[in-house]
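Sample entry was shown:
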Amino acid sequence: MKIFIPRLFVLIAIFIFFISSPSKGASFTITAGNFQFSPDTLININIGDTIEWIWQDGLHTTTSNGIPAGAMPWNELLDSMNTTFTYVITVPGIYHYISVPDLPTMQGQFTVNSLIGITAPTNSQFDFSVLSNLVSNQISLRFSLSEPLPVELMMSDIYGKWSKILMHETMTPGYHDRTFYLPQNISSGMYLITMRYKNMLVTKRIVIMK
């Protein structure tokens, strides 16, 4: 009897280890090349799964652009020196992402399933648009909110070397139109307008022509 009891404990311990060990999540691959993400839409992703972007050609980014509250935003370069980026899913909901240099054509999204009994947060609480992407001395923006919360609008160049806070204040629910005059010494080129609302970021691209 003394011989079999230790063996029984070993078998029980091995059984408990296997049933309690978390299963490895699935991995999904998105390629970035030819000015597109492929595939640009993924569904039925679960918490714990991994998204991997793989560079094929050109100069691109994978940048979160409207993601569920509580999810970690990302902004990663994809080029010949930075060929992959991996993101592990921790929050359910709909994730939108873009390649900043290739807006508005290069963008995608993926949907992460909710756990049973848990409602997935979404980014549907607001809408944000630039009324004209080609500007000279002013930019006009429109956005809508579902509840009163702080809103930040920021303008930056695509290289991250220059930035300016356009607005940072608590706004009332509903639609808002805002016009901002550009600095007189600003150079022509491509710029980004980013709206931060709650834990979400949405970025739009504009081109300044002087």
About this structure: Residues 64 and 97 are 4 Å apart (CA to CA).
